[in-house]
Amino acid sequence: MNIEPRLLKRAGLAALLLAGSASACFAQEKITLRLADSLPAGHVIHELVAKPFMELVTKATNGQVTFQHFPSEQLGKAKDMAQLTALGVMDLAYIVPSYSSDKFPLTAVGELPGIFETECQGSLAFYKISHNGGVLETKEFGPNQLRPLVTIALPAYQIQLATGRVIKSAKDLEGLKIRTTGGAMDLMMRSIGGIPVRMAAPEIYESLTRGTLDGMIFSYQSSVSYEFGKLLKSGTEGQNFGTAIFTYSMGESKFKSLPENVRKALVEAGEQTTREGCKRFENGELAATDKIKSQGMKVIEFGPDDKKVFDAAFKAVAEDWVKDLDKRGKPGTETFKAFTDALAAGH
């Protein structure tokens, strides 16, 4: 794994913290794990996923393990979380692999538009291929020295616009600057004529207010958490323009340094949180959508012809994504097949 020098400096500062907790490797000694994220305090992802996960681990270890939470990019930028976690700057973190799509190109398989129907279907299929010798474990997380514990597919993303342009058909989206997370979402946006602008979620609000961004592809629950509702003029409903996969992951070296009972608790809590957390998101997206609409956002109504445009675009995106990875020597075909097989099998 290639590490940027600026991140190595940050890791050096973290060494003092790590040295003080070295004795935590003994089984019955109290352990405090530092969990970092890029989310504002009270964000729905922390409330529905991270908090229940931490509670499960603490309960399973009878209080042996507790957590210290560092929100709002206190320990590092969103795009750097994967590398910083592998380096040990934090013990585990909220990581969106597509923020580092150069290092995690294969994980975008879970973000392809229209590839699954429900959050739980996508979350559990992704969990399967990122654990127990699955292709994402062996080809991406392992080589990047990360151990994914929780994997969640966010609700199907909708196009949400802060521009006053009236959208009556798919063609009206052409030329709009839309925030994406990179990877497959960039391909999808280009395929329908939009201009993808890759950026992390904490940067969206300012870009919308300045007019340098027309909108974003996002879930409504996340829009509520970031208070985008008051800026939005229009948005889609019931579409599937892709999603974002996020994980709560631990550096592999840190994971291996922990006592066996703690490792077991982390793994079991991670799988349980994946199964339960995706369901919480499914239930919460409807309420979030209603809240955003109550703040003045108008629903964009697309017709049957537009649906054909989107379906054709989504199919082309998946095919291009696979071909591009195969051409670069990456297992695109293998990853796509593994994920679609896992979706078909159900879990």
UniProtKB/TrEMBL annotation:
<dbReference type="GO" id="GO:0055085">
    <property type="term" value="P:transmembrane transport"/>
</dbReference>
<keyword id="KW-0732">Signal</keyword>
<dbReference type="InterPro" id="IPR018389">
    <property type="entry name" value="DctP_fam"/>
</dbReference>
<protein>
    <submittedName>
        <fullName>TRAP-type C4-dicarboxylate transport system, substrate-binding protein</fullName>
    </submittedName>
</protein>
<dbReference type="Pfam" id="PF03480">
    <property type="entry name" value="DctP"/>
</dbReference>
<feature type="signal peptide">
    <location>
        <begin position="1"/>
        <end position="27"/>
    </location>
</feature>
<dbReference type="InterPro" id="IPR038404">
    <property type="entry name" value="TRAP_DctP_sf"/>
</dbReference>
